[in-house]
Amino acid sequence: SNIYCQIPEELRSHTSFYLISTMFCGATVRAAAHAVRHVRATTLRNVGRNMDISKPILCVGSASTASVRFSSSSNASLKDTSYVEERAAVINKAHCKISIEEAKLMPLEWYEMPNGVLLNAAIEGDAEAREELLRRNIMSVEEIPWDEADVILDEMKAENQKHISLLKLPYTIGITTAFAAGFLSIPLIFHIDSVLWFNDAFVTFEMAGEGELDTPLEVGAYAWNWMEPPLGEASFFLLCMQFARNSMANIGFRPYGDWVKYSRARKLSRMYPRYHKKLVEEFALSHTLA
Question: What are the tens digits of pLDDT across the range 101-111?
């Protein structure tokens, strides 16, 4: 018979008391439910002892119910010992650390991962996971083993990287110009010989007086007469370009780099129409212009 049904009403009321008091104190509903489960288990355990039941067996239930099962007979002996042993084995296994054999079975390479793990990693943007997904798609379409599918994937990589030097030429020019202008501006402002040469060659500003170019700061103040306009204009121009780029991105216009990557992705998917279009495009997008 169900032991809980034999609990007197005055003991059952403890559950409602703890629930009301817990919620009154501002605890969350989850904390209140935990208190209810604890009180019920404690009450059932105490009642089981009073009824001379030899041993209460705590069993794992659902997340919302904690139950205490008792098996009793007329002579108060446990009847279902196989169930008890099975549950004890499950509980003991749950608390055991992993074995060496299980540790050796842990997958370490992407080709050892199951499909679900690869999909989650690909959604997060992992390039190697996207490669492996496309490789498996090639295997399923062509019905070929992993190594042969890898050869086709390498061909797709090479095709995706064609003319990459020409496509990234604007970035190469911009990086070179930025480094050169940044480092050259230092001597052209604070080094007296460089300042005088630049003035004679491009500016023809009147010479400074006697003793006005004795320190690098005085040289910088003198050179700033003609260096301020180009440097200020360059800073303002870059600020405007940055604002324009952000505004274009906000309304859906892709900057040059994104346009190049998406163009390559569409081209690659058209070249390999047998394979899943989304997987091919995501594979192409995961490769940078470097």
Answer: 888 889 899 99
